[in-house]
Amino acid sequence: MEKTFFIIKPDGVKRGLVGQVLQRIEQRGFQLEKLELRPAPSSELVDQHYEALVDKAFYPLIRDFMTSGPIVVGVISGPQVISCWRKMMGATRPEEALPGTIRGDFAQAPQGDETIQNIVHGSDSPESAAREIALWFGEK
Ligand code: IDP
Ligand code: MG
């Protein structure tokens, strides 16, 4: 069965949205394979997770945001779970995310800086899912 990796980012945990995000996963019928509350992740781990973005000018904002507090990490499985979870998350930018999506219903538009606080992460391909599951749940 297809698997994907997800994160409830620091804004989602801080704002008390863990239950509502997990409820959507369960309501959709996806199987929870792994689920953990973790302390704020290290910069090193976040850099590895976002290895494709570390050279972008805005990357320091992502690192500061992702290391700013506890997160929930998990693995879910189900038919076409990778693309379905990304549809459930909605567009990257809160102001573009449609109502009915997690980001469209819960993410607040940016106030002040260019940080995009958008509640959730989901792997974008089978290769990313395998890499991210190994990174966050694999043997050290
Ligand atoms: P995704 O989370 O929808 O897959 P990606 O393009 O993979 O979006 O970017 C990863 C994360 O990096 C986003 O969710 C967002 O938090 C942050 N991010 C992406 N683009 C920007 C940007 O232009 N400015 C600030 N943060 C960004
Ligand atoms: Mg992405």
UniProtKB/TrEMBL annotation:
It comes from the Bacteria. InterPro entries: NDK-like_dom (IPR034907), NDK-like_dom_sf (IPR036850), Nucleoside_diP_kinase (IPR001564), Nucleoside_diP_kinase_AS (IPR023005). ATP binds at residues 9, 58, 86, 92, 103, 118. It holds the Pfam family NDK. GO terms for molecular function: kinase activity. Its EC number is 2.7.4.6. The active site is at 121 (pros-phosphohistidine intermediate). It catalyses: a 2'-deoxyribonucleoside 5'-diphosphate + ATP = a 2'-deoxyribonucleoside 5'-triphosphate + ADP. Keywords: ATP-binding, Kinase, Nucleotide metabolism, Nucleotide-binding, Transferase. Its cofactor is Mg(2+). Residues 1-140 form the Nucleoside diphosphate kinase-like domain. The keyword Ribonucleoprotein does not apply. Belongs to the NDK family. This is Nucleoside diphosphate kinase. It comes from Streptococcus oricebi.
